[in-house]
Amino acid sequence: MNLSQLTPNPDWGILVVNIKDIRPSTAEDNAWKNNSADRRELAKLWKEERAEFNQLQRLARAIGIEGVLVSPFSASPDLKGWYVYCGWEVDTLSARGWGLSKKQIHSINRKKGPVIFINLDTALGDPGACQALAHEIGHHIYRLAEFTEQERNVSVSEAMRRFFPFDTYVHQSRDETCAECFAEYLTVPIIKNGIKRHCD
After folding, report:
1. How would you classify the pairing of strands 67-70 and 115-118?
2. Residue 118 lies inside a defined structural domain of this protein
3. Containing domain of residue 181, as a range?
4. E strand residue ranges, 44-138
5. Residue 164: its H or E element
6. Are residues 115 and 170 in contact, defined by beta-carbon separation less than 8 angstroms?
7. 148-168, pLDDT tens digit by residue?
8. pTM for the full model?
9. In the sheet where 67-70 sits, what is the strand order?
């Protein structure tokens, strides 16, 4: 089709627009485009992780975790997940940040077992949603081990720090270090494949 033969006709959707009349895109326009691309990328990543995430959810239920809830939006830029042990009251302000209604908060506070929250955006990061869920399951296993208070209060050793030399967050307590060890054990492909070969 020769575009030079088109004549302006608003009834047919053919308009002549001067390039100078088109406003430049604003930050809001760009944010909308980026946000849309981020949502598509997020959906794609969740789809890729879904099977493994579901396996980890089944494991969580099998060891006594009442539920795994994924926030409907980015709940916290600082937290990938949140392990709530039974007996802790979920405060309204924190739970609202995770997109929970008052009814859901009340339901969680009545549960007899722990609950895990996973931030929706964890799939965008490295290592992803499965690693975050495995880490939170690791906190539950740490509790199931029933370490004495003296054992829980021992500081993280230099040898333990060497497991995760660049992740200072897990250096803060033995609980964090053990939870991260468990997450690696469950989600790192080389370790998982070694376990499968050994068990088959």
Report:
1. parallel
2. yes
3. 21-199
4. 67-70, 81-84, 115-118
5. none
6. no
7. 989 888 888 888 888 888 888
8. 0.72
9. 67-70, 115-118, 81-84
